[in-house]
Each structure stands twice: as structure tokens, then as C-alpha cells.
Amino acid sequence: MSATPRKAEVVINLFQSLLVPELRLLGQEAKKKHPPLKEACERAAVKLGTLDDLKDETELEVLKGLEEVWRPLLIACDCKSKSLVTLALGALQKLVSHELVLSSAVPLIVTSLGKLKDLGDESVHLKVLQCLMALFSSSGGYELSLTQMPLVFNLSFSLYQQKNYAVVQSTAAATLSQITTALFDKLETKEKGELERSSKSAFLLIKDLCTVVSGETGQYVKIQGDVPKMFIFELIYNVVRDHSKVMASIPQFVTLVKEDLSLVLAQSMQSVSDLPLLVRIYRTITVLLQRFPYDLVQQQELFINLMIKTVDFPDVPAWHKVVVLTCWRELAENYLYLKKLYHRFDHNHKQANLFESLVTAICNVFKKAPPSLFAGISMSAERVTLYKLLAIKSDEEILIKPGEPVVWAIDTIVAICKSLSKLVEIEGRPLTDGEVANDVEAQQGENLSAHMLACVWQQVLGACTLLLDKSQDEEIIEETLRCFKQFTHACGKAGLDKARDEFIAAMNKFTLPSQGVLSAKNMQVLRVLFDVANGLGGVLDSSWYLLLTNFQQLDFLLSGSGSDQTSQSDIALIRSLLSKIFEGTKYFDDSALLTMVSALCKLSAEVALQQQSATSPSSRGQVPTFALQRLAEIAVANVLRLQVFWEVLHDHLEWLVKQSENEQLRKAAVETASQTVLSYLYKYRQPLMSPPVSPATPLNTGNRSRSSSTLERIPTWLDEPPSDKFWEMQPKVVAVLRDMRSSGRSDVAVGCLNLIFTVMQRAGQDLVPTSWRLILSMLSSSSQTAGEVPIGFKSVVLVCSDFMPILDHDGLQALIQCVGQFSQQIAIPDKTNTNLSAIQQTLSIADFCSSHPTHASPTHWNSLFVQLRDAASDSRPEVRHSAMKTLFTALVTHGNGLPSPCWNTLFWDVLLKILDNVHSAALTAEQQGLNQELQSQKGLIMHHSRNTAAKQWYETRCTVLDGVARLIRVFYSIISKCVSRFAEVLNRMAVHLANASLHSTEEVANVGLRSLQYLLVEISNAAADQVEHPAMLWEVAMGTWERLTDTSEATSLSTAVLTTLAEGLADLCNQAYGQSNEKLKYHLEVHTKRVLTLLDKLMKSKAASDTMSFPSKMQLSIIRCVDVAPVPKDSIELKAQLLVLLCSFLPSPHLIKTCASDPDSVPKQLVRGEAQLCERVLVILNKVYCSSETQNAVKMQSFDIVLQTFGAILLSRHFMPLKYEMWRKAVEVMPTLFDSALRTFKANDKGTAVMWKNVVAMLKGYLTYGTSQEGAQTPENPSDPTDECDVAVLGLVHEVLMPFTVHHEAKEAQQELMGLVDWCCKQRCKRTLSDTAMKILFKMCEGCEASDVKTQIGCAAMPVVASQCRGILTQYLADSRLQNRTPLPKHRHDEVLAVFNRLASTEFTPVLFTTMQDPPTLRTTCPAAYGPRGLSVRLLPILTEFVTCNDEQLTKALQAVLYVVTSELGLVSLAS
After folding, report:
1. CA of 379: how far to CAs of 376, 416, 1471, in Å?
2. Are 48 and 15 in contact (CB under 8 A)?
3. d(CA 1449, CA 1390)
4. Which one-letter DSSP state was computed for residue 948?
């Protein structure tokens, strides 16, 4: 019945589908010979057709109800008819297969089947076997009783013994195997309580099988005949192999195995010589040993010892040894069995060392093999296998090669190594459930793998070494190397350091070629060594040193002569595999990584010591840098675990660069540090251009800045920002550069500095503050060594340009100090480019501090200023000049944002000290000799005037004076509040400026004067609440200026210095008065008298005229100063002093008179310079005199000297060259001056009369000078070019002087002036002057009715007009008569024509004729003579004489005059 209940309908359908066709055929076959069978078949068929009443029953009830349906099948089996039996057995097999037969009916079926064994038909026998198999192969299975089971086995064995039918025999063998398996399978499904009861059949079966093998008859199965032992051993093997677990759980089975089965196997091992049977015996033993390791103690020892003897005994056939070795290999592959074997025997000191003996026996196979044997064996050749051995028949010839045992021994050793390695792995980790279940007993003890390895490693090593040495077969070598690798791993894992090292050392011997060429074996061993290094790095520990030493030798060989004889592909492969080793260290644990690094450091140290002990450079040769290169690779690969080995690596690199005398090693050490540091700092960044490079590779920096290139964008984080450990470790990594650089080796120092530059380029943005301080400290110290200065400073520039924003407070301070060190460096004294560039960088730092006020503190500013102060005292002029200019530029640019506390430090600790230091240095240089020539600076082209120390220090002094003064001027309002004791600071500054102003050197004095002047202006303007500051400065300044002018003649001061003083005074005056600066004006007016005195002294100094260009700059400056002289409005004395001062600037009357008497004695400076100067002074004098601010008293008081001065200048007209006509300017300004002066005088005053007398005398002297001595120009010559000035003087007389003669009632002066005009009219040689004089005379007479003043002037002028007209006309008539018909000169003609035109057009006021000296009767006789045309009437007699004139123009003009006269006389009606 099925294990799973089925529905009745399903069972009925199965019966109908399976049995109805079979019953029909069976009935048809038995209808004649076997009627009962036919009837039974028909009844069964009818029964199958009427099963509706069973559809509601259970499966069991249905099967019971249908039991009679299949009874005809058993009847058919009893018929002995082949056809009927065949049909019946087929149907019966189907029913059994579908479990349609009740278990109670199975004995009946078995009985029926047993009766058919003698039928003798092959097909029947096969059907019988199929039915038997169906009984045990059905899903539910049928339970056979203890009495039925022997029948089944007996029947099967009987059929197996049918040797006539091979098919039947083989099918019977399969059936027996299946039945046996099914029997034991059912045991495994039983509960523990039923197991012993249900296993009796199985037990009896195995016991009978053992009995049969022993040659006796079984008691249970009672096998008849001769059953082959080989078949029985197959059955036993299958049972033990597949069901050892259930057997081990049943005590009676265990006893059976120990007492019966083991005995049978042991006896068979010693007695059987048939290979097929022996193979099966050993195979069974192998299974037993693995399945019952703790149950078969004595038996196991017996089996293994027998097998060992078999292998060790030389006379044993090779095939026998192969059989044993194949079994051993199977045992070796079971690592748990090996452990149990060792645990039960070797570990128990009371027992034999079976495990060790087993391994030794295997190894002895190699050792006892003749050497020639190794040359002929090959793993790749076809060899015998266990399957081949099983297939060999007893009568076949056994063909096994002599080397087969060696090959199997190799396989076995490999398997043992693999198992031990796996065992070590398992014991090194928690066991899985399955492993615990399989090894409960052994696992209760201690870990055994180490003990197992310890007892066999020497044997294994010897055997493997022998194989590796003797064999040339690639596969054997490969297998042997696999043993090496696995044993190395196992020993390393188990802590057997010596064993592991021995295995590594043994392999190392086969890596290096003996003839310089790598063989195939060398390459194979190398590959394994590389695999060991890659895969077993965590367990190598001290073996790393052995490996790395070997790798170093190999690398050295391939880099030398060995590279020429070894193929390039092999070299490339080796190098690739070597690199993978060190790249693979990222998978090592921390301990293994540290061990490997320590080994490399030890190796590197040994190389250094070897090089150190070399006797000569030639004996040293090429230096192996393998260890250092690989240290770099490890550091790059394990950059995130650098803390694990950093201390070891750091100490080694530091030791190496300090102790090694070999430059190659030191360079390699620097390279290692370089790659390590760069990789660490760049680990978390995604490269945008290229990975970190070493400093050995030049970097094209160009004009690099962070905004344009450095890399050229900042890389991004790969995944996420680094952890805190990364930042904590970073300073330790960077510190290696500092420690290596401290070695004192120049090449190391340069390499470290190159690395620093690369670090900043690649990862400067990721450096932490501590790292920055370390770097800047190294850069700072590099300024002291010539070879380090260029690269060190390049890094400093990079920091200043790109990284200042990320520096913390201390970092920025360190940067400032570092830049300061470079600005003062003297390591390369003859090249100051670095100093100058460093000084320029301080300006960049100042810009940064100003633009990042929160980032910079007063400490930074103070430090920056102190560095510049120290640089400003440098002995090299270009350095100190640059430092000072940079200092002042930074202060002026960023002064407004400078923290207040910085100003106090700046002045007291920086600027004043610079002033004192420079002053002292300049004095020292001056004392050593102003003319001592300095050796020209290399690479610096200097002006020839700067090549003495004194002059260079003078220039420095100028720079600092100007800078400090400018600084005070610009930031006075801030400085005065922030600097303590500022008055003292200002006083010290003023003293320095005063000393400079008095210096004998023009340049210094000029700067002192200018700075003092600018300081005066600024402080005077700004010091609203600090009165003492400007007062003190003014006092110092005035004293300095006075000392300067007082000593100028004695000390022969430079003209430029005095000019500078004059220009400064002029600028002060201009700002005070020209720009209305009241504060400055106040201080100037306080010192007006002293200023005027200064100006007077300056103008009279030799320097004023000591020039090639006139007027000199100093004269012009003095004039500018006087132009806006700081004279208080209410100071008559000072104003008068000013006017006198101005007059003193002009040529004195005495000088002019002297020159007038002797024109050849005119001084050169008067001719070339003072003429032009005087013109400017005259203008200023006129302006000052005419100013409304000049008091009348001053004007009256000064007019006399002014008049004398003007008279003298006018007199110079007669002896000065025409191009130096300063008298022209005098004539130009005289109208305004005289107008202003005459207004101050009063009528009937004594002083007024004197004044007029002097004025008239001065004018006469000007106009009439030299008329008697010098002949006039002929009329034919052009007009005198000086006539225009004479005309101007006449205009002065007419427009200015004549009106004031009326106001002052100066009749005498009026007459003299009129006489002067009359004189001018008579100067016919000066046509312009005479014509102008005539015009003026007529103007005086015109419009007199407008005022009394004009009337009086006209009355005075009328007689002169009449006289002049009469004289001109009379003279013309007389001359024309003398010339007869010859025309007179044109100017004479024009002169007469002008008189006619004026007479015709001019009407006079009648009152003018009252002053004429006429006959008393004229008024009555000719009243027209006193009319508007009175002058024409009076000249009528002369006019009539011109009637005969032939000149058309004159005739026409005369007609007009006569017409006017006749009209006046009433002779002609004007209306007509």
C-alpha cells in the first residue's frame, strides 16, 4: 500500500488500466491447456467490471476486496508455461510497482517467484529479477520478514550463479546490490527504538557475506554454490561506503565490522595476490578507515602498517604499490580522517605514530626511487587509475610503468598538504555545524594541525626538494610547488615559523639561475613564490625577509647582465608579478603588513651597510634600490593604513639618509618618501590630470595660480571626505620630510624641498594646520643653504599665491616668518633676486591680511612689519631699498584697515628703529670714505653715481625718510590717536628730517626738505586738536631752513638743495594763499618775517644765479613765494618789507646807472637772467602794490623806492639788448601802479610835490635819454621797435598822470608833462612817437566840456596843439619850396594830411582858447578864432599857402579844412 493514502477511485482505475489487458491476454493464452486459469481470469475480469460498490471504501478496503483479482497471476506462475509465466510476471511487476498488492501477500509472491528459478528460461529469470527489484524499489517499500528476506537473497544469488546467461547474471548482481542498498536505506528511516529490531536482516546478511568470503557457508542466506569474492567485496564496499553512519549507530554492526569484516579484510590483504580482488579489498579498507576511525583502533593500525610495508618493500610489484597509494591518496584528501588518525595515534603517546609513518612512507617513495627514474616520469603521460584497476580482470596482464608509484606518491603528498592546509584553516576559524558533526570527537581536543605539521614537515620538505631538484617535468614541478605552497601556508598559519622559513628557503634556491639565464623551472618556482607572496602574505611573517631577499637578487639580476640573456617577455612577466605582490598588500591584515614593511626596511638597511663597507666606488657598482622601491609601492597601496607601519618606515628612511654615503640610496629613499606622502595626501582625491608624481619628474609650473592652472582645478573627493584619522595622521606623514631633511645631506634636502613643492601643488588644499607649520618651518630653514634657496622659495611663492586662505593663525605667522627669512637670506649673497621676490611676497601677504581681516590679527601685521624692518637693514642696497618701499607701499595701501594696536608697534619697533639704523649705517659708511668704490654687484647693473657704500646708504636714507613722512601725512589722524607718545615720535621724525635737510649730499637734503615741507602741510591741516604738533614742526622747520640759508655760502650747498627749499616755500605759500588754506596760512603768517628773510637770503645767494637756464628754478620759486607772500593784512611793517624785498630783487638804480655810463660793463647775469626775472618781479610788485590789502601808508612809504626801481629799469632800455627788454614790462605795469600810488597822495602836500617831481624826472629820463648822443634814425628807416613802449608812456601821461596833476593841483608837473608831450611831437625821426603825441594832444583837447579835469588839461594842451600844427605846416611849405618840384618823403606828406584831417573833423570847446596868448583885439576882430573851429581859423593864413599844392590828397583835405573855416567865418552857408 502506498505511503500516502489514495482515493478508492484512483486505485480502482489503476487496477482496471493495468490488469484488464493482461488478464484478457492471459485468458486467451490459457483457454485450451489451462481451463482453471481461464476461468479465474474471467472471474477476475468480471470482478473488475463491477467495482462501483467499492468507490466509497478506503484504499485498504479496496485492496482487500480486489485481492482475488490478481490471484490468477500466481496460478499462471505455477503453470510452468513460459508464455503464461512471462505474462503473469509482467502484470505482477506492474501491480507491485504501483503498490496494488498488500504486504500480507508478499510472502506468497516471493514463494511463487522462488519456484521459477529452476525454469531455465532467460526471459523468465529476468522477469523474476524485475519483480524482486519492484518489491524493494516501490516508493513505500514492502517489509519482508526475517524468514522471507533470505528467500529473496537466496533467489537472487541463485540467479547470479546462472553463468549461462550473462545478462541474467549481471541483472542479478544489480538486483542484489539494489536489494542490499534498499535494505540498509530502510534502516536509515527507522526510529532509534526500531533500529536494532529492523536491522537484524541486514546484520545477518553482512555476517553471511563475511562468512562466505572466508570460505564458509552462510547461516542466514545460505548461499549455494561459488559466489565470486570480488562481487561480495563490492557489496560490502557499497554498504560500508553508503551506510556507515547507520552501521556505526548500531553496536552489533560495529562489532561485526571490528571482529568479522576487519579480520576478513586483513587476511585478504596478506593472502590475495589477484589485482582486481586486491583493489576492491583496499578500497573497502579505505572506506572503513574513514568511516570507523575511532572504532577500528587495532585494525586501523594493522591496515596502515600493512600498507606501509607494501610500499616500503622493494620487491612488491609496482601495481601493488599503486593500489596502496591510490588508497592513501583518498585518505589524504580527507583532512578530517587525517586529523582523527593523528589524534587517535600520534597524539596519543601510547600509540604508534601512524600519521607520521604514513607520510614518511609516501616520501620514501621519492627517496628510494633511482635518480634515473625521475627523468622518465611525467604527470601528463597516461597512467593507471583506480577505475582502470577496477576494470582489470584477473587473467589480464598488468602493465604499469616503473614511475607510476612516484606519480601517485606526488598526488598523495599534494593531497596531504592540501588537507593539512585546510585543517589549519578550519581550526583557525569557528567550525560550521557540519564540520562539528563530522569531527565531534577530535574537536573536543586541542587544535592538532600544528602538531601534525610539526611531525611531518621535514619529511615533506625533503621529498619535495628532491622532486624539485631531480624532475624536469613541468607538471611534476607544478605539483611539487603546490606542496610547497600549501605547506608554507599551513606552517605559517599554524605558527611553525622555522618550517615555513625552510620551505621558503628551499624554493628560493630554485629561483636564481646558475648560468645567468632563467630556466623554465626557475620561472615555475618564481610564479609559485609570487603566488605565495600574494596569497599567503598574512602568514609569512619572518619568511618575508627570505622572500624579499630573493626578489631583490632577482631584480638586481634582471636589471644587470641577466636581462640580456633572458627573454623580455619573462622579464616583463616577472616585473608584473612583483608589482602585484606589493599592490596586493592592501589585502593583508595589519600584522602581516607591518611584518613585510619591517622586512623590506631590514633588507634596505643591509644594502646600505654593504655599500658602506665597500672598499672603493668601483666595488660598489650598481646599488640595489629594490627594497626602497617596493616600500613606496606598499605605501601607495596601503595609504589608508599608513599608521600601521609608518613609524617603522619613517625611522628607516630617516636612518638611511643620515647613515648612507651612497647618493643612489639616498635618492631612492627620498623617492620612497615622495610617493608615500603624495599618495597619502592625494588618496581621497579624484585626479583630474595625472596621478601624483615624484619630485624627480620636473613639473612645468609656469605662471601658476590657483584660479588658472595648479592641477588646474581642485580635485573632488572620490567617495566621501576622509575620516578624522586621516587628518590626525597627516602631520606624522609630513614630518618625515623634516626628519629626512635634517640629515645634513644636501641632495636629500633638495629632494625633500622638491617634494614639498609637489605636495602643495597636488594636495595643498588638504593640508591640516600642523602640516602647514611643519612645511613652513622646513621652507624657512632652507633659506640658509645656497642649494636649497631656489626650490624652497618656489614653494613659498606657491603658498603665498594659492594657500594663504587655508592657513590658520599660527600657519600664517609661520608663513610671514618664512618669507622674512628668504627676504634676508645671505646664502647666495651675490644673487638678490630671491630676496627681492620674497620682499614682494610680503606685499601679497599684506594684501591678504587686509582683504581678510577676520583671518589676520595684529600679531600677523606686527610680524610682517618686523620682517621688513630686518630686511631694511640689509647690507645690500637693492634688498633694503625693496624692503622699505614694500613696507611703505603696504602701509599706504592698507593703512586704513590696519588694526589700531599695530600702529604703536609699527612706529616704535619698526619705523623709528629703521630710521636710527639707517642713519647710523650711513654715518659709518661716510666715515669709511665717501669715495671708496664698492665691488660691483654680480648680475646687477648700477648707475655710476651709486657705486659707493655711502651713496647707497644715502639713497636708503632718502627712501626711509620719504616713506615715514608720507606715512605720517597720510594717516596722521589715525596715528596721532593710536601711537603712544606720538609727540615724541613726531619730534624724532622731525629731527631726522632736519638732519637730512642739512646734509651735505644733495639727494638726502632734498628729500629731507620735501618731506619736512609735506609733513608741515598735512599736520597743519589735520591737527585741529593737536596744536603742539604743528607748532613744534614749524619751529624745527624754520630753524632748519635758517641754518640752511645761513650756512649756504660757507658750505657751498648745492643749488638743487636751495632750489628745493625755495620750491617748498613757494608750495607752502601757494597752498596757504592760492588755495585758501586757512590753517596753513595761520602758521605761515606767524613766521612771515622769518620767511621773507629766508627768501631774501635765497635770492641773494650765489645759487640763485648759478645756472645755465635763466631765470633759475630757485628764482622762479622765490618769485612764486613772494607772489603769495604770507603777510598779515594788518601788518604795515611786513607789507612794506615785502615791497622792499621785491624791489631788491630788481636791478638797483646804481647798477643801472653804472651800466648806462658804460654799456660794455653790463653783467652777464643781468643780461641773460635778471632781465626775464625782473619782468616777473615787476608783475608781482605791481600786484602787491596795487592790492587792496596793501595799506595806503605802505604805498606812500614805498612809492619812492618803487619809483626809483622803475626808473632804473626804464633806463636800461638804452643799453640792454633788444631781446632782454625788461623795461617793456615796467612800462606795461606802470599805469596800474601809478594809478594806485597817486590815489594815496593828497593835494597841496609836501610829499605830493616831491612825488610829482620824481615822477616827471623819471619819465623825462626814459623818453629823452640819449637823444643828443645818438643820431635819430633816418625817416626812410622803419619805425623804432621801442616806439610802442614810448607810446605806452605817453598814454600813461595822458590817461593817468595828467588827471592826477589836476587833482593834486600840480601845475608845475602838469606843464612839465605837457612839455614832454610837446617834445615827443617834435621827434620827427620817431614817426610813431610823434604821431601818437599829436593824437594825444588832440584827444586832450576833445570833449573838454565833460568835466573840469578835462577842461584844465585841454587848456594846457591847446597852445601846444596850435604850435605843433603851425610848425608842421610851415616846415612842410618851406621844405617843399626848397625841393622845388621834387616830392617830399611820404611821411611828411602823411603828417600834413593828418593835420588837415584833424582840423577838418575836430571841434574844440571854446574855453580852451582863453589860455592862448593872443592879441587883445583878436576876440573882437575875429570872434571865430574862439569858436569850435578856432584852431582852423587861426591857421587860415598858412592854409591858404597850400592852395598851390599839386598833391591831390592834400588839395582835397585842404578843401575840407577851408570849407570848415569859411563856414566858421560865415562866408559859406553850411546848410548849402
Report:
1. 10, 18, 166
2. yes
3. 10
4. B
d(C-alpha 624, C-alpha 619), whole Å: 13
Residues 6+ positions from 726 with CB-CB distance below 8 Å: 640, 683, 684
CA angle 122, 123, 126 (to 5 degrees): 90
933, β-bridge pairs: 948
CB 628 within 8 A of CB 671: yes
Burial class of residue 1278 in the structure, from the number of CB atoms within 10 Å of its CB (0-12 exposed, 13-18 middle, 19+ buried): exposed
Q: Cis peptide leading into 1111, omega within 30 of 0? A: yes
∠ CA 413-417-423, nearest 5°, is 140
- Measured CA to CA in angstroms, residue 60 lies from 4, 53, 142, 867 at distances of 12, 15, 15, 114
User: Distance (Å, rounded) from C-alpha 1054 to C-alpha 1002?
Assistant: 6
Q: Report CA Rg, the chain.
A: 70
Report the sign of the C-alpha dihedral through residues 1345, 1349, 1350, 1351, in that order.
positive
Q: Are 1067 and 1112 in contact (CB under 8 A)?
A: no
How far apart (Å, rounded) are the C-alpha atoms in residues 592 and 1450?
Answer: 139
Is residue 1419 within 8 A of residue 1425, CB to CB? The reply is yes
The C-alpha cell at 1198 is 614805498
**Mean pLDDT for back-to-back runs of 10 residues, the chain (1472 residues):** 66 73 75 74 74 68 69 76 77 75 74 73 77 70 71 76 75 81 75 62 80 77 73 82 81 83 83 79 86 83 87 83 86 88 82 86 85 70 57 56 81 88 78 49 62 89 88 85 88 88 90 77 87 84 89 81 66 85 87 91 90 57 79 88 90 90 89 88 54 37 35 42 78 90 88 90 87 92 90 92 91 93 88 90 92 89 92 90 91 90 90 90 78 46 60 87 87 86 86 86 85 80 60 83 71 72 80 71 75 78 66 76 70 75 76 67 53 78 82 84 83 64 80 86 82 88 66 44 77 87 86 89 82 87 78 87 88 81 78 88 84 80 84 86 83 88 75 44
Q: What does the alpha-carbon distance between residue 1012 and residue 1033 come to, in Å, rounded to a whole number?
A: 8
**What pTM, to 2 d.p., does this model score?**
0.62
Which residues are within 8 A (CB) of 250 and not within 5 positions of it... i.e. 6 or more apart?
Answer: 187, 195, 196, 199, 203
- Bridge partners, residue 685, by sequence: 717
Which helix (H) or strand (E) element contains residue 825?
none
The rounded distance, in Å, linking the Cα atoms of 696 and 747 is 12
Tell me whether residue 102 is exposed, middle or buried, using C-beta atoms within 10 angstroms of its C-beta: 0 to 12, 13 to 18, 19 or more: middle
Apex 325 CA angle, 320 and 328, nearest 5: 135
Q: Which three cell numbers stand for residue 1311?
A: 606843464
DSSP calls for 575-635: HHHHHHHHHGGGGS-HHHHHHHHHHHHHHHHHHHHHHHH-SSHHHH-SPP-HHHHHHHHHH
Q: In degrees rounded to 5, what are phi and psi of residue 52?
A: -65, -30
What is the Cα–Cα distance from 10 to 384, expressed in whole angstroms? 55
Distances (CA, A) of 1403 to 232, 1209, 1456: 183, 40, 14
User: How many residues are listed for the chain in this entry?
Assistant: 1472
**Number of helices (H) and strands (E), helices first, in the chain?**
75, 2
Report whether 668 contacts 629 (CB < 8 A). Answer: yes
Q: Give the integer Cα–Cα distance in Å for 572 and 551.
A: 14
Query: Long-range contacts of range 789-795, CB-CB < 8 Å, 24 or more positions apart?
Result: 789/822, 789/825, 789/827, 789/828, 789/834, 790/834, 791/750, 791/753, 791/754, 791/757, 792/753, 792/822, 793/822, 793/834, 793/837, 793/838, 794/701, 794/757, 795/753, 795/756, 795/757, 795/760
The owner of cell 644636501 is 746
Helix, coil or strand: residue 685: strand
